[in-house]
Amino acid sequence: MNIQENTLVFRLGDNDNIIKINKRSQIKHFIADLDGLDIDVVKKIKDKLLIFAQSIDKENASFVVVYNITFDDKLVIVPTIQEAFDYIEMEDIERKLEL
Question: What pLDDT digit, counting tens, does each position of 53-62 carry?
Answer without folding.
Answer: 998 888 888 9
